[in-house]
């Protein structure tokens, strides 16, 4: 038993913690939870907790159903929204097979493999996500979605629900050891954003899952509903999860070069080139739902075209403004990702695409300097700017042909994602929407 596990056992005893929740995700990115008694914790560390993996989306087939949850002691935190008189803690888990090997179908293991690939090349991956979401008033139904306010970007709403909500959510996140960099009102009515500080890639994915849970818990406590739906309203901006990535070699930021354009190093340029090269084929992972494409193609600065730029909010990849004397802050921003993605799988494919650019020394295309949405199709074609998939169906077709995404996800997860997304598209295609009924139904 290692020092982290021993520390957790001591803390559980000292705080008289009554329940411990073991968290993990299915392949679709849905958080799963199993509660154990503290008396089972030592065995959970050494042997794992058995469960039926065939009942979890994408983890295993029925005839291979036995799986084990092994808690990661470094993720131990108290749940701050629980009753203080009955302390409850949580830990993220790795999923193992009965022979003690990490399950290839575990999304956390998929990301860990990508991180190991980066480490083999001498890099540590740091990730800083910006999580956007809408707050709605209850009751919420298909025909009744009312935002909590009519405010806009960076607006301060006196005595507003969004202000109180963000304050409580940030406090809970920081109580759980998750540092928050910013929180503010976004562009749509009732739309908010919480930005988490940069941490290593696996911790970042854990933090995204935790943040989504905290946001939903705080919303319910305030009689509100939080939604991470990429495009809940036709006439208002969609919700993205702009993701900042940097690579470090030891303590040095591998993306920083003081003499480079925008202080971006050759390594950083090649990383961007890899992202752009593979952007089309990995979009089914970073934007995994039918609704995701209504955000990407809905305008309002959503990135629908494969290009990069400096402070260009219409570009797929942005190189943020460099802050003098803050070389550690040099990074790139991938803008297509949305908050409904499975963060483990999405970060894995982004990392692998960027590393491919570094390993193959890919050349970075010229910068897009203006609003890419304002260009004609012919102008984009001349500039070599391709479009992202316009639908989930197109994205899955692109993913099917991708050796890189198949390698990043592994055979089992790759096959499941393709099947699952094709099923979602077929179900969507069968629907008759209210808009179609309004268009064709004649009432006399």
From TrEMBL:
Domain spans labelled GS beta-grasp: 15-100
Annotated binding of L-glutamate, by residue: 295, 301, 335
Signal peptide (residue range): none
Note describing how the cofactor binds: Binds 2 Mg(2+) ions per subunit.
EC number: 6.3.1.2
Cofactor: Mg(2+)
Alphabetically ordered keywords of this record: ATP-binding, Ligase, Magnesium, Metal-binding, Nucleotide-binding
GO biological process, one term: glutamine biosynthetic process
Pfam families per UniProt: Gln-synt_C (PF00120), Gln-synt_N (PF03951)
EC class of the enzyme, as a word: ligase
Domain GS catalytic positions: 107-444
Binding site for ATP: 181, 244-246
Catalyzed reaction equations: L-glutamate + NH4(+) + ATP = L-glutamine + ADP + phosphate + H(+)
rRNA processing found in the keyword field: no
One Gene Ontology molecular-function label: metal ion binding
Residues that coordinate or bind Mg(2+): 130, 132, 186, 193, 242, 333
Organism domain of life: Bacteria
UniProt family annotation: Belongs to the glutamine synthetase family.
Annotated NCBIfam families: GlnA
PANTHER family (UniProt xref): GAMMA-GLUTAMYLPOLYAMINE SYNTHETASE GLNA2, GAMMA-GLUTAMYLPUTRESCINE SYNTHETASE
Protein name as it appears in the record: Glutamine synthetase
């Amino acid at each position: 038993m290692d020092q982290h596990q021993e520390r957790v056992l001591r803390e559980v005893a000292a705080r008289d913690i009554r329940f411990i929740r073991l968290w993990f995700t299915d392949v679709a990115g849905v958080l799963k939870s199993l509660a154990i008694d503290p008396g089972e914790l030592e065995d959970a560390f050494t042997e794992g907790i058995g469960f039926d993996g065939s009942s979890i989306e994408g983890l295993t087939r029925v005839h291979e159903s036995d799986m084990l949850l092994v808690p990661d002691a470094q993720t131990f935190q108290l749940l701050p929204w629980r009753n203080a008189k009955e302390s409850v803690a949580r830990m993220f888990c790795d999923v193992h097979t009965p022979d003690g090997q990490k399950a290839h179908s575990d999304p956390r293991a998929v990301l860990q493999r990508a991180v190991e690939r980066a480490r083999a090349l001498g890099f540590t991956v740091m990730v800083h996500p910006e999580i956007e979401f809408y707050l709605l008033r209850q009751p919420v139904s298909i025909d009744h979605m009312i935002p909590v306010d009519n405010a806009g970007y960076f607006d301060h709403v006196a005595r507003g629900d969004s202000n109180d909500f963000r304050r409580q959510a940030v406090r809970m996140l920081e109580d759980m050891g998750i540092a928050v960099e910013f929180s503010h009102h976004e562009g749509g009515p009732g739309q908010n954003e919480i930005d988490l500080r940069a941490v290593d890639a696996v911790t970042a994915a854990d933090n995204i899952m935790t943040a989504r849970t905290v946001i939903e818990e705080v919303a319910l406590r305030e009689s509100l509903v939080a939604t991470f739906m990429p495009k809940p309203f036709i006439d208002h901006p969609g919700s993205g999860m702009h993701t900042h990535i940097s690579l470090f070699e030891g303590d040095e930021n591998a993306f920083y070069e003081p003499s480079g354009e925008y202080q971006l190093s050759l390594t950083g340029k090649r990383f961007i080139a890899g992202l752009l090269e593979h952007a089309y084929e990995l979009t089914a992972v970073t934007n995994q739902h039918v609704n995701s494409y209504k955000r990407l193609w809905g305008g309002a600065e959503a990135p629908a075209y494969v290009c990069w730029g400096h402070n260009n909010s219409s570009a797929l990849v942005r190189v943020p403004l460099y802050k003098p004397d803050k070389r550690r802050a040099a990074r790139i921003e991938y803008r297509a990702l949305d908050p409904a993605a499975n963060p483990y799988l999405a970060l894995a494919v982004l990392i692998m695409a960027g590393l491919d650019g570094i390993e193959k020394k890919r050349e970075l295309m010229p910068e897009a300097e203006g609003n890419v949405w304002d260009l004609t199709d012919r102008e984009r074609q001349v500039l070599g700017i391709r479009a992202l998939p316009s639908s989930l169906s197109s994205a899955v077709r692109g993913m099917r042909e991708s050796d890189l995404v198949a390698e990043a996800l592994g055979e089992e997860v790759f096959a499941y994602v393709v099947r699952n997304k094709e099923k979602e598209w077929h179900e969507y295609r069968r629907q008759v929407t209210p808009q179609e009924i309004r268009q064709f139904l004649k009432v006399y």
